[in-house]
Amino acid sequence: MQTVDQATGRAADLVAAARNAGADAADALYSGSASTEVQVRLGALEDVQRSEGEELSLRVFCGARSASVSTSDFAPASLDALVERAVAMARLAPEDSWAGLAPQDRLMRGDVPLLDLDDGGEVDPQALRDRALAAEDAARAVEGVTNSEGGSASAGRSVVALATSHGFSGGYAVSSHGVSASVLAGAGAAMQRDYAYHSARHLADLDDAAAIGAKAGMRAVERLNPAKLASGAMPIIFDRRVSSGLLSHLIGAITGSVIARKTSFLLDALGTQIFAGGVRVLDDPHRPRGMRSRPFDGEGLPVSPAAIVENGVLETWLLDSASARQLGLEPTGHATRGSGGSPGAGSSNLHMAAGTTTRADMIRGVARGVLVTELIGMGVNTVTGDYSRGASGFLIEGGEIAGPVAEFTIAGNLKDMFRALTPADDLEFRYATNAPTCLVEGMTVAGG
Predict the structure, then answer these.
(1) Closest CA to 320 of 346, 283, 286
(2) 3-state secondary structure (DSSP) of residue 8
(3) pLDDT-based confidence at 116, cuts 50/70/90?
(4) 8 Å CB contact between 394 and 405
């Protein structure tokens, strides 16, 4: 894997080669990663995986025509052939008046912001094995746990670099660490499975492995002997384990491509109230050690914290340059980039701000409802907003948790769900997308 400087040089050299081969404009993305994962089961080492990879992606423009190619072969002759192939493909591609590099006057200038994303630590397979064993041992030690799907620990490092033909060049490195455990409680057909995990950019921020395992074990035991639910309309409380999914549905409906195609249930919602007053949804690419922090977007534009929803009002779309041109707007610095293909748009470190109600008071205020801790399936229509997911969790009766429930479906429409949503005060920043416990009134439950 290249250093950041080497990776940035690789990308810049590929762009220069494309211009020399006749491209009117070009950009290149380098992505390299190396990671190690250790898996254990029932106290024994089960697997050790090591993965390493590097890739260069090149996008070239010949007038309004473009093509994208990628390779993991960095031999000079192979890169020369890649460039020639990309230019030839672009000359035969259909015209796209919206495609192109980001506006030159909007490119990030100056030094890359320091976000403390790389702890520089070396991967120690023995330490990974010890963490995986500690997580599984703690999970299996919980009374009622009867079997294990295993524990795992991982560590890795990635380097990203981007160069464009109109003046941008930059790169950065990130490290990552993770621990997980998954166990079963009970016996036979009555067995229940659950898990816990945590990931962090710096090893120093990673939760204690034994604490993660103990949480997995307790969660599995708490799910034993679930009851069936009667169908009807009732309030649903989304546990923090699943509430962030509501934000994912929001982002999926406000990216530039779906707005330009007119395939979003929020198509006409910009500047209007979509949540209750007081609800805020924020995106912060500059959070130190954030799981999706980045110094620039996938097109070389600067990034900055932004309010997606302020006091319940939708404030912005998330736009890459192509979708911004199509909509007659400016890009918002939310371009995302994968290996090959054109940029899309997406969030970075996304969260819903905490409310003022405690989780305990939220539960006490529900006469009969459900605390949902797991969602199953992908029954969400981003065109209409219709929402239907399999679920499991805990029945709430008389303001108290009354026991586990399973094999039911919750349904509604995301427009109605957003307006009926109340956030609790228990927000934690643990993942790339975070939300507090959320109450949504008036959903439909279909019991088993």
Answers:
(1) 346
(2) helix
(3) very high
(4) yes
Domain encompassing residue 423: 226-448
Rounded alpha-carbon distances, angstroms, from residue 250 to 255, 298, 364, 445? 9, 21, 28, 22
Q: Which residues pair with 199 in a beta bridge?
A: 178
CA angle 375, 378, 383 (to 5 degrees): 130
Task: Find out whether 203 and 119 touch, Cβ atoms under 8 Å.
Answer: yes
Strand 433-434's sheet: what is its strand order?
A: 313-314, 306-310, 281-283, 350-352, 433-434
Helix/strand/coil for 179: strand
CA dist 281 → 124, 133, 249 (Å): 38, 38, 13
Distance, C-alpha 315 to centroid of its chain: 21
Of 47-51, 173-177, 333-337, 374-378, the range with the lowest mean pLDDT is 374-378
**Are the beta carbons of 129 and 153 closer than 8 angstroms?**
yes
Give, in order, the Cα–Cα distances in Å from 36 to each of 124, 234, 339: 9, 45, 21
Could you tell me if 188 and 259 lie in one domain? no
Beta strand extents in 239-366 (DSSP E only) = 281-283, 306-310, 313-314, 335-336, 344-345, 350-352
DSSP assigned state of 296: B
The last residue of one of the domains, among 188, 205, 221, is 221
Interatomic CA distance for residues 37 and 125, integer angstroms: 8
CA–CA distances in Å: residue 9 to residues 5, 80, 104, 162, 324: 6, 16, 20, 9, 29
Q: Give the confidence band of 448 by pLDDT, cuts at 50, 70, 90.
A: low
When divided into structural domains, the chain yields a total of 2
Of 407, 417, 423, which Cα lies nearest the Cα of 380? 417
Structural domain ending residue among the three candidates 194, 221, 248 = 221
Residue type, 321: S
Dihedral, CA atoms, 337, 344, 103, 310, nearest 10 degrees? Answer: -110
Residue 250: alpha-carbon gap to chain centroid: 13
CB 38 within 8 A of CB 47: yes
- How is residue 405 written in tokens? 């429930």
Q: Where are the beta strands (DSSP E) in 135-210?
A: 145-164, 169-185, 192-200
Alpha-carbon distance of 179 to 195, in angstroms, equals 11
Q: How confident is the model at residue 169 (pLDDT cuts 50, 70, 90)?
A: very high
Ramachandran bin of 166, using left for φ above 0, alpha for ψ from -120 to 50, beta for the remaining angles = alpha
